[in-house]
Write a structure and sequence with these properties.
The complex is a heterodimer of chains A (221) and B (647).
Chain A (H helix, E strand, L loop, with lengths): L1 H10 L17 H11 L2 H18 L11 H12 L6 H5 L8 H7 L4 H14 L7 E8 L4 E8 L8 E3 L7 E2 L6 E7 L1 H4 L2 E2 L2 E2 L6 H14 L2
Antiparallel strand pairs in A: 1-2, 1-5, 2-3, 3-4, 6-7
Helix pairs in contact in A: 2-3, 2-6, 3-6, 4-7
Chain B lengths: L2 H53 L6 H12 L4 E8 L4 E6 L9 H6 L7 E7 L2 E10 L2 H51 L13 H36 L9 H11 L9 E9 L1 H8 L1 H21 L3 E6 L2 E7 L3 H20 L7 E9 L6 H18 L4 E5 L11 H13 L3 E10 L5 E12 L3 E4 H10 L3 H18 L6 E5 L1 H4 L2 H13 L1 H4 L2 E6 H6 L1 H12 L4 E7 L5 H8 L3 E4 L9 H17 L2 E4 L5 H7 L6 E2 L8 E2 L2
Parallel strand pairs in B: 8-9, 11-13, 13-14, 14-15, 15-16, 16-17, 17-18
Antiparallel strand pairs in B: 1-2, 1-4, 3-4, 5-7, 5-8, 6-7, 10-11, 10-18, 10-19, 11-12
Chain lengths: 221, 647
C-alpha cells in the first residue's frame, strides 16, 4: 500500500493524465523524435498526418441522437486506419504477439489485427465514444481460419454491434459477418477496475497490461 | 537513574519501535495479499458464472441464472452476488448478512480489508445480456489476518524480551567497570584512596580507570610514605639512637601504659644500671670503645628481654634502666644479678680498671604511672650501691605512699559510687581553637567528682579507679546524660567533645541508651563529638568501628585522643577517618625538636585525609606561634583556656 502510493506519486509527474494515454493529444515531441529514430524520417510525417486527421474529426459535429455514431462516421475511422499495411508481428516486431501502441502502429506503418483494433479503439475513445460502447473482441475468422481480433461498436448495451475489421474495409453489422465467431471481448472498464482512485487488477490480460505500460512510457517521453 | 537504566530504556524504546513497525508492515502486507486473493477469486467466480449463464443459451432466463448462482453463493465465500441486465437492473441478487468478522473491531478498523469485487459480462455471440458482479466476504480473510497478527505479535514479543535480556547482560558487562569507577569515586570523596581492579573493555573507560588508578595510587603511596616516616620518627622519638633501647620518653610512656589501673602487672622491679668510669675508658681507649661497650651492655639487656617481658632503656650518660613488670622479688633479684654479672664481665674485658657497674633497684607492689618517682627511688638505691663498691647492687622496696594512690582502692570505689548516686559530677569545658585563626573548634568536656567539702577531684585521679571497678560505662552514661541536659539549655556552645571509655564501647545497655538519647534529640546529636583514646582504638578496634558507624548515623563525629603513642594507630587513621586527632601530650612541641618532626610528618598524613590535627598541653603563648608552621590545625592547653565549669 505504501509502496504503491509512492509509485503513483512518481508516475503522476508527467502532466498527461492516465485517461488520455493512447490519444493523439498525448503524443509528445519526445515521442515523435523517438519514433523518427526507430522507424526513419517518414514516421514523423505519418504521425503528423495522423494527428491532423484526429483533429479534423474532433471538430466535426456529432450527428445523431444520444451520441450514437452513424455507420458512416465509423467507416471513415475504419478506412483511415486500414491504410496501414498488414505485417505479422514476427515479421514486423520480431515477436510472436506484440500489441503496438497507436503511435507505434502509425509511425512504423505496419500492423496486424490487434494493432488495428487498438488504434481504432483509442481513436474512437478520443473522439468521444463512451468506452462502454466499444469492445475489443477476440474472434475466430472462418474465412482465413485464424484467431483474429476486431473492434465492436454497440450503439446501446443490448444492440447488435457494428464491426470495425482490418479484413473488411466496410463497417458492417455483426449479423452480416457470418465469417466471424466471437470468443471473448473486453474494454478498459473490464480490465481496469477502479477503486478509491487506485488501479485494480489489470493483469488478467497480460498484453493489455504491457500495452498500458508502453502508453505510460510514451506519455513521459 | 543510572546510566545503564537510561541506555536500557532507550534500547527498549528502539526495539519496541522497530518491532511495532515490522509488525505493522507485515500485517499490512498480509492484508494486501489477502485483498488480492479475494479479488482474484471474485473475478474468477464472476467470469465463470457469466460464461455459464451466457453459454446456457437462454441468457434472459432468471430462474436459470439463480439456479446457477445459488450453489456458488451458498459456499459462503461471497458477500453479495448480483446478476444485472444490460440496463443495470438486478435480476438475481443474493446477499449474506454481515456476521462477526472473526477479529476485534479495532483491528478491523485498523486494517480494513476492502477487496474490490469481480465483474463479468454475460454475452452470447455478439449479443450482450448483462453482467455478473461478485463481492467477496472478508470474514475468513479477517480471521486469517487476526491469527497471523496475534501469532507474529507473540513471536515478536518473545523476541523483544530476549533481545532486551541480552542487551541488559551486555550493558551490565560493559558498564560494570563504570559502576566500579563510580563507587571508587564515591570512596575518593570519603577520603578512601583505592585502586580499581577491573579492566574495562571500552577504551575510554580504560583510560579513565588508568588515570584514576594513577592518581589514587600516587596519593596512596604519598600517604604510605608519610606513614612510614611518621612511624620512623615516632620510634626515634621514643628510642635511643646509640643503643636502640627506649629513651627516657619511651620509658615514661611504658610506665604510663603498664601502670594503668586494671593492667595485669602492677608489681615488679625497676633497676638502674650505671656504667661508671666511662671518662677513663674514653681517655684510654677512645670514644669508639665507649660506644661499643654501651652497645654491648644494651645487647645484654635485650638478651634478657627474650626471657622476661622487661623493658630496657638508656636514660642517661652511662645509665640503663630496666623495668621488670609482674615478677616476684626473688626472680627480680636473680635477673638483676645475672645481668650485672654479664655487664661486669663486658666491662672487665676492656681492661680499664676504673670501670665499674652499679645497680640500684626498687621493688614495687603498685607500679603507678610516675616514672620520676621510680627514678628517684632507684637513684637513691644506686647511690647506696656505689657506696658499697664495685659491681654492687641494691634492691629496696618502694615507698608506697605516693600521692594519687593515697586512698585505698575500695575507698575510691565508694567515693565514685556515692558521687554517681547523688549526682555529684561537675562538668567543665575547655576550648579548643583552630590555628592560626584561633576560632573555636569545639569544647572538650571533662568531669570532676564533687567531693564532700566542695573539693573537686580531677578525672586523671579517679577515672583509672572507676575503670578498675568497672564503673567506666556508668560514669560515661552519667556524664552524657548531663551533657544532654546542658546542651538542651545551652545554645551558645556549638559542639562539645565527650570522652568515651573502653568499657562503654562493650556495654550493650549503654549503647542502647545512647541510641535512644540520640534518636530523641537529633539536633543535639550533630553537636556531639565522641573522643576515643588511641589505646582503646588499638585494643578494641572492631568495637570502635562499630561505635563510630552507629553514632555517625545520627550525625555525631568521632575524634581520637592521645594519638601517636603507638605507631600502629596510623594504620587505623585511614579507615576510621576521625574528624580530628589529638596528639599525645608527650609530643607537645614544648618537649623538644623531635616532637616537631613527628607533628609535621603527621600533618602530611592528616591533611590529605581531611583529619584535623590538634596538639595538647600548650602552656606557653609563644608555642602557639611556632605551631602554625608545623601544619597543626588546632591547639588545646592552658595558654588558650583553662577548664571552667559548664554553667
Amino acid at each position: 500500500m505504501f509502496a504503491g502510493a509512492t509509485l503513483v506519486a512518481l508516475s503522476a509527474f508527467p502532466s498527461i493524465p492516465a485517461d488520455r494515454f493512447g490519444f493523439t493529444t498525448a503524443v509528445t515531441p519526445g515521442l515523435i523524435q523517438n519514433l523518427a529514430g526507430r522507424f526513419g524520417g517518414e514516421a514523423k510525417t505519418r504521425v503528423v498526418n495522423w494527428l491532423a486527421f484526429a483533429k479534423n474529426r474532433k471538430s466535426a459535429p456529432v450527428a445523431g441522437d444520444a451520441g450514437a455514431w452513424p455507420v458512416e462516421r465509423l467507416q471513415v475511422i475504419n478506412s483511415y486506419m486500414n491504410t496501414v499495411p498488414w505485417f505479422s508481428d514476427m515479421e514486423h516486431w520480431g515477436s510472436a504477439d506484440y500489441w503496438a501502441t497507436p503511435a507505434e502502429t502509425v509511425g512504423s506503418h505496419g500492423a496486424d489485427c490487434e494493432d488495428y483494433a487498438i488504434a481504432k479503439y483509442f481513436l474512437l475513445k478520443e473522439l468521444g465514444v463512451p468506452v462502454s460502447r466499444l469492445r475489443i473482441t477476440y474472434v475466430r475468422a472462418t474465412r482465413i481460419d485464424e484467431p483474429h481480433m476486431v473492434l465492436a461498436y454497440y450503439s446501446s448495451a443490448s444492440a447488435e454491434p457494428l464491426i470495425l475489421d482490418n479484413l473488411d474495409d466496410f463497417v458492417r453489422s455483426a449479423s452480416a459477418r457470418k465469417d466471424l465467431t466471437p470468443v471473448y471481448s473486453f474494454n478498459d472498464e473490464d480490465v481496469v477496475l477502479v477503486r478509491n482512485n487506485q488501479r485494480g487488477n489489470v493483469s488478467q490480460i497480460r498484453n493489455w497490461h504491457l500495452l498500458n505500460e508502453r502508453l505510460r512510457a510514451e506519455a513521459a517521453m | 537513574m543510572k546510566l545503564g537504566h537510561y541506555l536500557l530504556l532507550g534500547l527498549a524504546v528502539m526495539f519496541a519501535a522497530i518491532l511495532v513497525g515490522a509488525q505493522i508492515i507485515y500485517v499490512d502486507d498480509t492484508r494486501d495479499y489477502l485483498e488480492q486473493q479475494l479479488e482474484a477469486h471474485a473475478q474468477e467466480t464472476a467470469t465463470s458464472l457469466a460464461l455459464a449463464i451466457g453459454g446456457a443459451g437462454r441468457p434472459a432466463d432468471l430462474t436459470l441464472a439463480e439456479t446457477l448462482v445459488r450453489p456458488v453463493f451458498d459456499r459462503g465465500q461471497f458477500k453479495r452476488i448480483k446478476v444485472l441486465d444490460t440496463s443495470g437492473r438486478a435480476g438475481v441478487q443474493m446477499a449474506l448478512d454481515a456476521g462477526a468478522s472473526g477479529a476485534p473491531d479495532w483491528f478491523v478498523r485498523l486494517f480494513p480489508i476492502d477487496a474490490p469485487g469481480g465483474e463479468a459480462l454475460i454475452s452470447s455471440g455478439w449479443q450482450q445480456f448483462g453482467r455478473v458482479t461478485v463481492e467477496p466476504s472478508p470474514t475468513l480473510a479477517y480471521r486469517h489476518l487476526w491469527q497471523v497478527a496475534t501469532t507474529s505479535t507473540l513471536w515478536l514479543g518473545a523476541l523483544f524480551f530476549i533481545a532486551l535480556g541480552v542487551s541488559r547482560l551486555l550493558l551490565g558487562y560493559l558498564l560494570r567497570s563504570l559502576s566500579e569507577i563510580e563507587s571508587a569515586a564515591g570512596d575518593l570523596g570519603n577520603r578512601i584512596f583505592r585502586e580499581i581492579k577491573l579492566v574495562p573493555r571500552a577504551r575510554e573507560l580504560q583510560n579513565v580507570v588508568s588515570a584514576f588508578n594513577l592518581l589514587s595510587g600516587k596519593i596512596r603511596s604519598a600517604l604510605e610514605f608519610e606513614e612510614t616516616r611518621a612511624q620512623q620518627l615516632q620510634r626515634e622519638a621514643f628510642s635511643d639512637g646509640l643503643t636502640g633501647l627506649l629513651n627516657r620518653r619511651g620509658l615514661a610512656q611504658q610506665v604510663q601504659i603498664l601502670g594503668e589501673p586494671g593492667s595485669a602487672s602492677p608489681r615488679g622491679a625497676f633497676a638502674l644500671f650505671a656504667v661508671d668510669g666511662l671518662a677513663s675508658l674514653r681517655a684510654q681507649a677512645g670514644f669508639q670503645r665507649v660506644e661499643d661497650l654501651l652497645r654491648e651492655s644494651a645487647e645484654i639487656l635485650r638478651d634478657a628481654a627474650v626471657e622476661r617481658p622487661l623493658r630496657a632503656a638508656y636514660v642517661n650518660e652511662g645509665t640503663f634502666a630496666l623495668l621488670l613488670p609482674g615478677v616476684s622479688r626473688g626472680a627480680a633479684e636473680n635477673d638483676i644479678a645475672a645481668i650485672l654479672r654479664r655487664m661486669s664481665a663486658a666491662a672487665g674485658r676492656t681492661g680499664v680498671v676504673e670501670l665499674g657497674i652499679h645497680v640500684g633497684a626498687v621493688y614495687f607492689n603498685t607500679l603507678g604511672q610516675d616514672l620520676g618517682r621510680l627514678l628517684g627511688e632507684a637513684d637513691i638505691a644506686l647511690e647506696r650501691a656505689r657506696h658499697r663498691g664495685d659491681a654492687a647492687s641494691e634492691l629496696v622496696t618502694a615507698n608506697e605512699t605516693a600521692p594519687g594512690v593515697a586512698r585505698g582502692s575500695q575507698e575510691w570505689r565508694a567515693l565514685i559510687q556515692r558521687c554517681l548516686d547523688e549526682d555529684r559530677l561537675a562538668l567543665l569545658l575547655q576550648r579548643v581553637v583552630s590555628l592560626p585563626a584561633r576560632t573555636l573548634m569545639h569544647r572538650e568536656v571533662t568531669v570532676r567528682l564533687d567531693e564532700a567539702g566542695g573539693q573537686l577531684v580531677p578525672a586523671r585521679l579517679f577515672f583509672p579507679m572507676a575503670l578498675r571497678h568497672h564503673l567506666g560505662a556508668k560514669l560515661d552514661a552519667a556524664v552524657l546524660a548531663k551533657v544532654f541536659t546542658h546542651l538542651h539549655g545551652d545554645t551558645t556552645t556549638d559542639s562539645v567533645a565527650v570522652n568515651v571509655s573502653a568499657q562503654t564501647l562493650s556495654d550493650a545497655n549503654y549503647l542502647q541508651q545512647l541510641k535512644t538519647n540520640l534518636t530523641n534529640a537529633p539536633t543535639l546529636a550533630k553537636r556531639l563529638i565522641f573522643e576515643i583514646a588511641e589505646a582503646t582504638m588499638l585494643e578494641q578496634a572492631a568495637a570502635v568501628y562499630a561505635f563510630a558507624q552507629t553514632v555517625r548515623a545520627y550525625g555525631c563525629s568521632i575524634g581520637l585522643d592521645n594519638f601517636m603513642v603507638s605507631g600502629d594507630s596510623l594504620n587505623h587513621l585511614r579507615e576510621l577517618l576521625p574528624a580530628y586527632v589529638k596528639l599525645a601530650t608527650s609530643y607537645s612541641p614544648e618537649s623538644g625538636e623531635q616532637a616537631s618532626f613527628v607533628i609535621s610528618s603527621l600533618g602530611r598524613i592528616t591533611r590529605p585525609l581531611d583529619v584535623r590535627l590538634i596538639v595538647l598541653g600548650i602552656e606557653r603563648e609563644e608555642t602557639l606561634l611556632t605551631l602554625a608552621d608545623l601544619a597543626v590545625d588546632g591547639a588545646q592547653g592552658y595558654a588558650i583556656d583553662r577548664p571552667s565549669p559548664w554553667q
